[in-house]
Structures are given as C-alpha cells and as structure tokens.
Specification:
single chain, globular, 2 domains, Aspartate Aminotransferase, domain 2, Aspartate Aminotransferase, domain 1
Length: 386
Amino acid sequence: MPVFSAPLVSRLPTVGTTIFTRMSQLAQTCGAINLSQGFPDFSAEDVLFERVAHWMRAGFNQYAPMAGMPALRDAIATKVHALYGAHYDPGAEITVTAGATQALFTAVAALVHPGDEVIVFEPVYDSYVPAIELQGGVVRRVRLGAPEYRPDWAALRALITPRTRMIMINTPHNPTGAVWSAADMIELAAVTRGTGIVVVADEVYEHIVFDGARHESAARDPELAARSVIVSSFGKTYHVTGWKVGYVLAPQALMDEFRKVHQFNVFTVNAPVQLALADYMAEPSRHLALAAFYQAKRDAFRAGLAATHFELLPCAGTYFQTVRYAAVSDLPDLAFVEWLTREVGVAAIPLSAFFGDGRDEGVIRFCFAKQEATLAEACERLARFC
C-alpha cells in the first residue's frame, strides 16, 4: 500500500471518528441493541418506495435542478405556510439539500468568514463546531443546564460582540429532547434585533414535539425569519435517514449566498426521490401524525425504564431520552456506555461527547426510534443490570 510521507497539517486536529460511529460499531461487534445512533429500525410506508420506483421508471434519473425539483419546493412552501403562516418563494427561498448536515455545513461555509464569531448552545450536535472551525470561525459556547436544558439568555447576551456573525440553535434539541418555547423565540429576536447576526435554526425534529405543545419555528416570527436559515430533514420525518434529503428556508439575500456554495458543495439531490417526496407530502397527516407516533414510543420506553435505577430527565421532543445513571454506576459516562454495550447488551451515547471540554454530567442518551419489541427487549436487559 502506498504511504503518504509528506508533512501534513490537519484542518481538524482534534477530530476523530464520531461517537455515533464508534458506538454503533461496538454495538454490532457485541450484538447489542443499538439505542445509540439516531435512526429507526423500522421502515417507511411502501407507497413512498413505490413513488420512487415510479419516477425512476418514468425517466427522471438525470440531474435535478440545482435548487431542487420544483414540485418538491412547492410542496415544502405549502407545508411551511400551513404550519407556520410563513410565505417562502419556492424559486428563490427554498433549496433541497443532501440531508440536514450538508445544509448546516453549507450555511456556515456561505456566511462565516475567518475571525467571525459563532455562538452555539451546548451540549451541541457534533457537526456544528467542525463546520465553523473549517471556515476560520471562532466558536463561542452557551451552556444549557440540566435537567431542563433551557437557554441562558443573560449568558448569551454577554457573548455578543461586534464580531458575532451567527447564532446556531437547535429545537427540538438533540441530544437532550428540550423544546424551545415561544418566549425563547421572543428573547432570540430581541437579542439579535438591530444586528447583522444570522440565525441558523436546526429544526430537523420539527414534527416530534410532545404533550400538545407546538414547535416554535423561526419561520413563525417575521422578524426572526428575515435573518434565519432554517434547516429540516425528510429523513427524520419519514423514517428514511439513509436517503439524506433535507431542505433549507431563507430570505433571498441569504439563500443567494447559500446556493453559491451549495452548487459546488453538492450541486443537486437525486431527482426520483425528490419527486416521490413531493407526492408523499400531499397527505399532511403523514407529518402531522408524527408527534403522537413518537410520543407513544417515548411513553412506553419511559415506562420500561421505570424498572431501572436510572433517573429519567424530561423529554419534550425528538426521539431521544436522556437519563442520569449515578444510582447505577460511578464510571465516567464513556466508560459506562461501553460497559452497557458489552455487558448489558444495550448501546447508548455519553453526553460528554456533546461538550467541547468533554464535560461529564453523568448523563447518557438513548434513541427510542425503534420497534416496540426492540424497546421492550432493551428495557428488560437494562432492568436486569441497572
């Protein structure tokens, strides 16, 4: 095998294989139930697959338009207006992306210059910081405090400087399951008012909000919408994470910049899947029923965990449940999830992976986007050992 021997300076010297890949690999090696990485172990409806096959057979197998198939952008515009009362021009203000991670990376690449400061809330999803650092941006962190993981607005205000270019938010929040309120969005609008700060709103779990609450999208508030790049995910909504299709909403001035990068970063997303998603979106119940679907799983999983010594933290949205394990073990959180995987047969994610300094609060995250039988077996194993 050839060996590269020239000096090499890494652009991301502290980054290795993600915790999600590591834990999924360990789960596979150990034959453990994988409640670590956030993907379902069940399938989408057959009708969605049939629509993909239909459009493939109909000949839509070449490049789609750079911004996305018009039919899908129209369907997104219709959904967003129905849910949030916001009008986005499908031609100029909506772009289909190769998943949400690409959308987030492209937004940062398009709008952050070297030396710009970007504020993130931690625990923070692992793709945000590398995207910022690759553009020469400076990461500023606001800590979300357990167990509610609410934003600290005084702490955020203290971080704002003339160099602040962007604030990245995530609601419903991965990994904690916290959901921002209308009051939080009012605070965000107040903090950014009169500034040139861009908000990147990661809303990939927008349809998974529990207990009758509503998702407070940045699109609901015209003031916030005017400065926001909003990201969502068909993979999360329709149980097809491997398709890697998402979308972005933004006012035209921001979208023009986004598309400049998008066209070279990805260019376009496969055509038949886009057309199938447009067809599938014609029935709104397919996304409107998602909250009840996952709330039933959340409630069943929490009921099963009641037989353990875990302390269950609040879960207001997403398909993740966080727990404290102090009554079970005094191991560091990474060592504890490795023990869980090897000895108990259930894989989870340590929350320290979401902190820049590896802060260990004795909290781990389970994914309950699984079949009922999978969750029941996981709870039985955990109850025997924990």
